[in-house]
Recover the amino acids of this structure.
């Protein structure tokens, strides 16, 4: 046990920058890109799904179902290995870009469902009241429905962020520099598997735990607003 | 003021309204009574197109709010291919029209009835149509569940529609190059002044900055009523305005509605409050099984009901 702890301390003093400056930074960056891009794209998906253009609706629904129905790892393989074979121009892209794009699309699929259900959870009476006053569909959406839907959406979006942080670990399959990649690197140099895994586990936990506590605090404040 | 012409409304296989016609005069107060599920709320909601009728037309002050219903216009039926076919088969003019109406023979699909038919439908629509949003601005509605906007203060609940619609109209006027002394700010100020006047009238001026969640049911419903009044509507629709209220709050809401009726407002009220219907209505319509089974003055309906189902209904609620 003593050697275990002293090994961890030694690893951190030698390779701390690999875990923290590379691993944690890349994991946070990837998650942030995935959730930010996913939120924007997911919002577009959600509105497309509610929209009047039938082919677009079908296309989005199909995409969302495929993304939700297949493992992320498989989607990453598709983005990094399979698609570039079909479209040679994609070979030029660095893996981190392909991985980010796949993560964004994956996150968008889940976020679009979060937004859709958030909007649907707003009482239909609110819409009816606004429309009965002669307000247009758009004004009703922006001034009455969305402000109320946001209260349902934001907490769920936070949970999506936490999920994505953990899921980015799969990106290490392509050695893109995230926290799990830094584990592979340091283990390769030190041959200390258990110690490295412990460090990475603790770091993941600190990230997600802090975030979920921050979210809970934000949620409490929003309730009063 | 309002004309309901032969309205049918289906929800899937459920037929809620089966051919309802009604006329509302300016200044008239009409009550719709009937058992739950009889279709009276659906009828009210068809008036401002919260529900789109399956067949039939809704007119407000000579303007068509729905799509034209070809079955109501013999001249349009005469232009249809179906009519031609029946005539060719040897039916007389009148008989062919009757047969088409009775058996619902017109094709719904665009163009299946020929170019002339499509042209007449479009022409009729273009000549008479009024946009539903514009119509609703002149038709206030009050809901059973109040439906105050939860994300807005009481004052903003009342001013939202006047400000949004006022500024949209102002933009439109400026785009068309009209001269106007109005500005966005003046519209907002006028709407706020009006909101405060209305709030003062119902004694809730001190609640202007409160949010709906902090109000009682009676307060919410009274604010919902003045929110509709802020648009200066020509007609007010009430959908069971007191059914969701605690008994001690029913009075304050009914008093406000009565006051409104006395001021000459045109009103259509779906209600279970028979005493109220009797007191304020000029006419009472008994809606049952998707039809208007009986209509008349409160005196006729409550003293001297003829329809068996109405007698039965009254014996249960009075």
């Amino acid at each position: 046990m003593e050697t275990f702890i002293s090994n961890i301390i030694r690893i951190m003093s030698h390779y701390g920058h690999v875990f923290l400056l590379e691993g944690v930074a890349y994991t946070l960056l990837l998650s942030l890109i995935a959730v930010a891009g996913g939120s924007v794209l997911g919002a577009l998906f959600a509105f497309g799904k509610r929209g009047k253009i039938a082919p677009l609706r079908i296309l989005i629904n199909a995409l969302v179902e495929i993304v939700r129905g297949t493992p992320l790892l498989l989607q990453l393989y598709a983005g990094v290995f399979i698609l570039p074979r079909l479209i040679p121009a994609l070979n030029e892209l660095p893996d981190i870009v392909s991985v980010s794009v796949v993560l964004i699309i994956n996150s968008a699929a889940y976020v679009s469902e979060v937004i859709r259900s958030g909007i649907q959870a707003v009482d239909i009476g609110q819409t009816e009241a606004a429309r009965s006053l002669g307000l247009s569909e758009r004004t009703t959406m922006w001034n009455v429905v969305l402000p109320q839907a946001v209260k349902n959406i934001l907490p769920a979006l936070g949970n999506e962020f936490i999920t994505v942080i953990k899921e980015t670990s799969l990106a290490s399959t392509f050695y893109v520099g995230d926290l799990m990649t830094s584990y592979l690197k340091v283990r390769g140099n030190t041959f200390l598997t258990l110690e490295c895994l412990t460090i990475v586990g603790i770091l993941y936990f600190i990230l997600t735990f802090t975030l979920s506590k921050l979210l809970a605090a934000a949620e409490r404040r929003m309730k009063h607003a | 003021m309002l004309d309901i012409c032969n309205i049918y409304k289906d929800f899937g296989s459920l037929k809620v309204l089966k051919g309802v016609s009604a006329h509302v005069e300016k200044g008239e107060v009409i009550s719709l009574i009937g058992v739950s599920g009889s279709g009276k709320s659906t009828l009210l909601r068809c008036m401002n197109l919260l529900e789109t009728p399956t067949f039939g037309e809704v007119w407000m002050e000579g303007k068509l709010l729905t799509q034209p219903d070809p079955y109501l216009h013999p001249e349009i039926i005469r232009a249809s291919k179906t009519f031609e076919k029946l005539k060719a088969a040897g039916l007389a003019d009148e008989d062919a029209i009757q047969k088409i109406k009775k058996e619902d023979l017109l094709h719904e699909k665009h163009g299946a009835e020929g170019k002339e038919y499509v042209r007449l439908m479009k022409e009729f629509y273009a000549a008479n149509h009024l946009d539903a949003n514009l119509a609703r601005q002149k038709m206030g509605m009050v809901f059973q569940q109040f439906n105050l906007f939860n994300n807005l203060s009481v004052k903003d609940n009342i001013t939202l529609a006047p400000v949004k619609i006022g500024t949209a109209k102002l933009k439109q006027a400026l785009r068309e190059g009209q001269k106007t002394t109005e500005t966005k700010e003046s519209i907002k100020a006028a709407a706020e002044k009006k909101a405060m006047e209305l709030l003062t009238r119902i004694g809730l001026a001190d609640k202007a900055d409160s949010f709906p969640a902090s109000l009682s049911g009676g307060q919410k419903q009274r604010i919902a009523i003045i929110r509709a009044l802020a648009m200066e509507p020509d007609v007010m629709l009430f959908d069971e305005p007191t059914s969701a209220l605690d008994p001690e709050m029913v009075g304050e809401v009914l008093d406000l509605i009565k006051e409104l009726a006395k001021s000459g407002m045109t009103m259509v009220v779906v209600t279970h409050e028979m005493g109220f219907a009797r007191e304020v209505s000029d006419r009472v319509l008994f809606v049952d099984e998707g039809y208007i089974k009986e209509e008349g003055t409160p005196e006729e309906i409550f003293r001297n009901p003829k329809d068996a189902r109405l007698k039965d209904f009254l014996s249960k609620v009075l």
